[in-house]
């Protein structure tokens, strides 16, 4: 009977605690469950969005293969309006810009690249700005091209940005500044990158000197 009495006391204590804290506890539990439900729902939404965006991206690529420019642009527009938060939207815009550029529609190409420059991840923004600067170079909008390049600050694209800057400066006949840009491009470009050779050719074409490879210099000195 002592055990039963102790059990009754524990039950009475539990009831008293629940009367004081039960409402708060229920709300905490409800919030926790709602949070989990929301997280699970968001994950499902993200997966669904990615799947649908992937299908639309395939349609865009098929339109590119079929040389259906109008369909490419429609698909890119749909992607940006419906799936702007996915990587597919950024890739679609870059693809649409290339199609427009090849069709000599520079206005549309710039619009697509500007969208990526404003809405993409840092890496995609840098790619878009590099290509946008190239379009502006073709349009002879040199100062605008340099302004765009000045905002492309992702380290992994430093060599490409400096190279494009050199191209713009050459077009402006600012050869001393162009040589500095090409030297910076060489310094930031891996020695195994096949693009280095083209940078060297451009540098030498405007009277620049390619820095001697340190390993070759050491070997020659020995």
UniProtKB/TrEMBL annotation:
Keyword annotations from UniProtKB, A to Z: Cell membrane, Chaperone, Membrane, Transmembrane, Transmembrane helix
A molecular function (GO) term: protein-containing complex binding
InterPro entries xref list: SecYEG/CpoB_TPR, YfgM
The keyword Cell cycle appears for this protein: no
Subcellular location: Cell membrane; Membrane
Pfam families: TPR_21
Residues passing through the membrane, by range: 24-42
GO cellular component: plasma membrane
Membrane topology: Single-pass membrane protein
Every Ancillary SecYEG translocon subunit/Cell division coordinator CpoB TPR domain range: 15-207
Main location: membrane
PANTHER family named in the record: ANCILLARY SECYEG TRANSLOCON SUBUNIT, UPF0070 PROTEIN YFGM
Name of the protein described by the UniProt record: Tetratricopeptide repeat protein
Native organism: Janthinobacterium violaceinigrum
């Amino acid at each position: 009977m002592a055990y039963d009495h102790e059990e009754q006391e524990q039950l009475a204590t539990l009831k008293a605690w629940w009367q004081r804290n039960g409402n708060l506890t229920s709300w905490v539990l409800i919030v926790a469950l709602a949070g989990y439900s929301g997280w699970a729902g968001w994950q499902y939404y993200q997966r669904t969005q990615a799947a649908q965006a992937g299908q639309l991206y395939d349609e865009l690529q098929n339109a590119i293969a079929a040389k259906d420019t109008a369909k490419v642009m429609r698909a890119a527009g749909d992607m940006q309006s419906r799936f702007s938060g996915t990587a597919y939207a950024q890739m679609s815009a870059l693809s649409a810009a290339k199609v427009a550029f090849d069709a000599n529609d520079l206005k549309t190409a710039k619009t697509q690249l500007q969208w990526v420059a404003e809405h993409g991840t840092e890496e995609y923004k840098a790619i878009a700005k590099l290509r946008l600067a190239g379009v502006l170079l073709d349009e002879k909008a040199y100062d605008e091209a340099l302004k765009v390049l000045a905002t492309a600050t992702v380290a992994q694209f430093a060599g490409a940005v400096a190279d494009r800057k050199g191209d713009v400066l050459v077009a402006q006949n600012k050869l001393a500044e162009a040589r500095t840009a090409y030297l910076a491009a060489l310094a930031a470009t891996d020695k195994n990158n096949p693009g280095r050779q083209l940078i060297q050719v451009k540098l030498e074409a405007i009277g620049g000197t390619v820095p001697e490879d340190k390993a070759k210099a050491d070997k020659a000195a020995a």
